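Issue 218. Parser rejects a valid record. Input:
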Amino acid sequence: MINLSLIGIGTGNPDHVTFQGAQAIRSADLILIPRKGENKADLAGLREDIIDRVTETPPRIAYFDIPRRRADDGYLRGVDEWHDAIALRWQEAIEAHPEAQNIALLIWGDPSLYDSSLRIAARLDPKPNTRVIPGITALQALTAAHAIPINDLGAPYVVTTGRRIRKEGWPETASKVAVMLDGECSFQSLRMSEYDIWWGAYVGMKEELLISGPLDQVAQRILDTRARARADHGWIMDIYLLKKRDVQQRAANTDS
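Output the parser choked on:
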């Protein structure tokens, strides 16, 4: 049985790697690194930089290509088939190095939150002995960058996706909502005059972009900034936190 370590590496800043994560990288016989096309080559490069920074003798690296996800047969079925295809790529990369017993993947953010690596690992045959090394989440990095708490005093918050915001609207029980995996800027589907937003892209990296304020006043700036950044880098990772204003706040903004 092989040992598989899923190592959270934060948002791409090598300083986000914990001592435990660095030790797990140094202990690996083989590290799997995904490639997502030429426009996203620097995502693999960031992982390589982290490996170089925490090791004196870098372990062997095996690259694998991420297959495209189908979107023509329902979201959940498309994701399930996509995970099957990625697991096959992992399997092929591992079997090409039969001498490696300690395998590692460097996972963006934290493997526990909005990441499919655990579900993909469960598809491997034989099943590996899997451990998770926690990392800094994009949500932690976002709230730290804006110097705000994620929750209001005694109030709940919800972490969700842009797809669910578009489909279901604002979660009724939430004081704040953190939105991940949103390539369509789904805050546009809400009544924007009722919300404040804290948005960030490449959070924690040298390219970090931050915008905050009343949603109806900053939404277009976020859209424009996001489009330029995606064109410049070929990829973008962003996340945002929304808070619904109370009636008095909305009235004050209207009067002003």
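Fixed in the parser; the record now loads. The chain has a mean pLDDT of 89.
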